[in-house]
Please model this.
Amino acid sequence: MPFTYDYPRPALAVDCVVFGLDEEDLKVLLIRRGQEPYAGRWALPGGFVRENESPAAAARRELHEEAGLRDVYLEQLYTFGAPGRDPRGHVISVAHYALVRLSDHRVAAATDASDAAWFGTDDLPRLAFDHGAIFEMAHARLRAKVRYQPIGFELLPERFPLRMLQHLYEVVLDRPLDKRNFRKKVLEMGILEELDEVETDVSHRAARLYRFSKARYQTLTKKGLNFEL
Amino acid sequence: MPFTYDYPRPALAVDCVVFGLDEEDLKVLLIRRGQEPYAGRWALPGGFVRENESPAAAARRELHEEAGLRDVYLEQLYTFGAPGRDPRGHVISVAHYALVRLSDHRVAAATDASDAAWFGTDDLPRLAFDHGAIFEMAHARLRAKVRYQPIGFELLPERFPLRMLQHLYEVVLDRPLDKRNFRKKVLEMGILEELDEVETDVSHRAARLYRFSKARYQTLTKKGLNFEL
DNA sequence: CTATCATAGTGTAGGACTCACACGAACGAG
DNA sequence: CTCGTTCGTGTGAGTCCTACACTATGATAG
Model:
């Protein structure tokens, strides 16, 4: 069933850079393409935007269809529209990035689509289309944004020890941080809730668990806090 | 001549928030709409993206056609795609913002399109579509970005006294700055070229003129400078 | 030519923040 | 009971930020 318009329209797509955090490093979710163009190559999950669907909604739909992911933190990144970026014709893609808790989602992504896999961010294969450039921009944005907005918590389990939070920042910023200074800064900020609970199943002294308090963050933000790490 | 596709395609547009700087305040360029919808309302300059045209190219073309502007600083802002934002159907708009030197461009914009005008940023009329929200986002982005990237110079004439630079920051950040601290910071950064020239036609002591040196900025950036004001 | 007016241009000191740095306590494993 | 591993904690030096006021210069008006 064909659709007809008075003027030509470029096609509109979305692509998503999905980040997850490991014990070791930062991961990205890729999908192996089954069809031409770039059949067999790894690519970012994505697809075409339907009529009367916002780009954000399209991105969420595709993440669910292609990787079984739901309820993730999602933010628009940039719109890539150079003619020639897709050999099928002029396709403009609204790129997004998403942050997921790997502990919750690792399995889902691996089973739902048999050709989905997590890759370490410094160990990516060559990607289809201009997805390499999209990934680079997303990575840069994450590094920048994590420093002045508390989005990093989206990568952690709900309750976490401070070591895990520090590890997150070390992995994302790609440099070591001082433990005492890091703890002081984060705790003094007052956006963490100290829980009456410690880690379990560790073969050494167990660390106290914390939880990010969105409520406290919003209160403090109104009072002029500026989150910065 | 109709254009036909196998799947429906939303229409793709661009809109531009064009900022200029006055002796008094920050201005935005608006165009009065001649046609429905929103005929007679003020709106951001913009229009539809053609096939095989990148969004940035479309934005530049529209700025030229609707306001006679060329060679402006242009950056992508965000893509607005909520269904319902345009009563004609599903139109997705890649919003941009532009910075121009009012001294050069004020006239052009006023003559080329008789229904174009500059408005003070705290004195805007109600805008068509979701252009009010687009403007707000652009304004917020400019305020944020001007602090860590030397984009403010795009709003000034090539040669300017330090007072004018300070005035720019005061207007954009909407708070007064200390003269001595401001000068110290800017000059110590080393990105300004001190010229052998002073203001003319002023009825008081004339100030020295400076020029932003892109070359120095890039050199220093590589050496780890981080611009911050 | 003198007085007036407007803006240019300049330094310092107190407080806040940043950064580097090391060791005893807790707990599980063997 | 010993070993191994991670937890949790404070201080001092240096740097950066901020607040603050007066003299110099040049144009204009009387």
User: Anything to note?
Assistant: Chain A has a mean pLDDT of 94. Residues 161-163, 179-180, 183-184, 202-208 of chain A lie near DNA strand D (CB under 10 Å from a C1'). Chain A touches chain B at residues 2-12, 48-56, 76, 78-79, 81-83, 90, 92, 94 (CB under 8 Å).
